[in-house]
Amino acid sequence: MDNIKKLPKDVKKIWRLSATFDFVIVLLVMAAFLFWYAAAPVGMKNTLMTISMIILAFGILDYIFELALVEYRWNFWTYYIDDRQVELHHGFFFRKQIIIPIARVQNVTLKQGPILRWKDLQKVNIVTAAGHSEISGLKTDEADNLKEIIMKLAREARNDI
């Protein structure tokens, strides 16, 4: 695995679905304000309607923004693994590069919720003493292979020290 890899295209569907779930939550919050509006005294009705419309406006803008960024996120999310380090890169305007020395890796965990399982994807969680980093949305066989490679390289790096 000595080359830069991208996440599979299926992760874009997961990100879109996540944005849709977030929007549904915003709609539920707005609905709660509207129920409150229906039972509120006349003096509060204008305030509650204004709050509901602000929540809806921000929710719609966030939803459109999240959907527009799916392609952007996918294009600029890459990872690279060699015998010395794991590198994670994402972002174009606000770039973030995470370098995890292989010798510092303590554990590699695979996570898969029902939505990721639906698309046969997993999250690879790389744990060090300083924290953890995640590669989200890898195919299951690729995630298993990646976990084995990272742990093998980590064992070898600890034996060399």
From TrEMBL:
Keywords: Membrane, Transmembrane, Transmembrane helix. Pfam families: bPH_2. It comes from the Bacteria. The keyword Transmembrane helix applies. InterPro entries: YdbS-like_PH (IPR005182). The chain crosses the membrane at residues 21-39, 51-70. This is YdbS-like PH domain-containing protein. Residues 74-150 form the YdbS-like PH domain. The keyword Lyase does not apply. The lineage of its organism: Bacteria, Bacillati, Bacillota, Bacilli, Lactobacillales.
